Amino acid sequence: MTRTRRPALQRDETGSVAVEIALLAPALVLVLGLLVAGGRLWFARTTVVEAALTSARAASLARSPGAATAAGSEAGRESMTTAGLRCATSSVRVSTAAFSVPVGTPATVTSDVTCSVPFGDVFLPGIPGSIDLVGHGSAALDTYRAR
Question: Which range marks the domain in which residue 21 is found?
Answer without folding.
Answer: 17-140
